[in-house]
Amino acid sequence: MKQDMIVILDLGSTENTVVAREIRDMGVYSEIHPHDITPEELNGLDNVKGIILNGGENRVVDGVAVDVSPALYDLGYPVIAIDHPTAKCAQKLDALPDEATLKKFVFDECKAEPNWNMKNFIADQVELVKRQVGDRKVLLALSGGVDSSVVAALLLKAIGQQLVCVHVNHGLMRKNESESVVEVFQNQLHANLIYVDATERFLGKLEGVKDPEEKRKIIGGEFIRVFEEEARKLDGIDFLGQGTIYPDIIESGTKTAKMVKSHHNVGGLPEDLQFELVEPLKQLFKDEVRACGIELGLPPHMVYRQPFPGPGLGVRCLGAITRDRLEAVRESDAILREEFEKAGLDKKVWQYFTVVPDFKSVGMKNHARCFEYMVIIRAINTIDAMTASIEKVDWDVLEKITNRILAEVENVNRVCYDMSPKPPATIEFE
C-alpha cells in the first residue's frame, strides 16, 4: 500500500524535522527535500499530496535568498509557505503552524490519508528493495547496533539468502561487542555472516589523526575498502546495505542547512564507491527505527539496545587515538553500562557512554603525585536524536560508578559528568 506523502522543501529552516515529525504523528508520511528539487523530481516521488515551503533564518545564502522553481506552483499540489514572504501561494504564515492549521492543510486541502504506519512502511520497503536488487546480492555492514540490525531483518524479509552480512571489528568496538554480534546473528539468527578482524589496519590508519571529521572519514572510507575486498571474494555482489537513518542525513548538511557533523555512512563515503547503496531506513527517525524492528519481530533487547556510532569508540577517544586511552574508554564504558543496568537506568536512559579526552590532569595515587587521564560520563534522553536532555542520575549511583572507574581502569585519576543538553552540544563529543 503506497503511503500518501507531504513534501517539505527546505528553504533554510532550522525546524524542518519539527514539521516532519508533527505530520508523521498525524499518521501521514512526510519527507524533507532540498529547495531546488525539479518539477520532474517532485513528480517522480510516490503519492505526493501537498507541499510545504519551509523558510527560515538560513534562507539567504551568500547574500541571495534561495527559492523554489516557479514551475512547482503549476504542478497542481496544494502549497503552504512558512516564513517565506515571497512565496507565490495563497496561504503564507509568519511562524510554524499550530496543530489545527497543520491538520486542516494536510487532511482538508491535501486530502491525505493517515496510512503512515510501520506495517505499510515495511511492505513498501520490501517491494522497493526487491525492485532495486532483483536477483543480485547485497553486502550489509552489520555493526550489531540498532540501525544495522533492523536493516538486516528488513533485508532478510525482502531478499533472504541474497543478503551477505559482514561484521568488521575495527578495534573501536565496546567490550565484548564483536563476540556478541557473532553469537546473536550467526548462531541465533543464522544469518550469512562474515567476521573480519581489522583492528590493526584501522588503528594504523588513524595513528596521529586528531581532527574529528578526518577520523570519521578515514573510518568510513576504510570500511568501504574492507567491504570491497570481501565482495571480491564473493560472486554477484553489486549492492552495499547501510543502516543510514534520517538524522544522519540531516546532520550531514543540505544545501541550505548548516552541517552539524558528517556521518561516516554519509559524508565519509568515497567518490569512487564501487557499490549501489541500499538504505531502506534512511527516511526514519530513531524511534521509528525501533518501531520498525519490533514490527519485524526482532527481540526487544536488540531493538532497545544502546545506540552506538558507526566510528565506534574512535569518536569517544578524543583527539588522536592512543591504545591506552582507547582501553580506558572501553573499560569505563563497560563499568557504566553494568552499573546502569543494575540501577534500572538502562531501560530509562536513551543513551549513555564514557569519553576520554586527550589531555591529563594532576592527581594522587598510592600517596604519590600522578598525571593521568579523566573519564567523562554522558547520559541523555531524546526521542528523535535531534534534541536531547540530561538524565539526572542519582548521586549514589554516580558515586559507585566513579569509585569503580578510579579503582579498575588504568591511567585514570578523575571522573566528570557532562551536563550539556543538545543543542548547543551534540550527543557525541566528536
From TrEMBL:
Pfam families tied to this protein: GMP_synt_C (PF00958), NAD_synthase (PF02540)
EC number in record: 6.3.5.2
Record has Membrane as a keyword? no
Question: What pathway is this protein said to act in by its record?
Answer: Purine metabolism; GMP biosynthesis; GMP from XMP (L-Gln route): step 1/1
Highest taxon of the source? Bacteria
Mind telling me which GO cellular component terms the entry cites?
cytosol
Residues binding ATP:
S143, G144, G145, V146, D147, S148, S149
Q: Where in this chain does the record put each GMPS ATP-PPase domain?
A: 116-305
Query: Which GO terms of the molecular function aspect are on file?
Result: ATP binding; GMP synthase activity
Keywords, sorted A to Z: ATP-binding, Glutamine amidotransferase, GMP biosynthesis, Ligase, Nucleotide-binding, Purine biosynthesis
Function statement: Catalyzes the synthesis of GMP from XMP.
Q: Which NCBIfam families match?
A: guaA_Cterm, PRK00074.1
This chain's protein is named GMP synthase (glutamine-hydrolyzing)
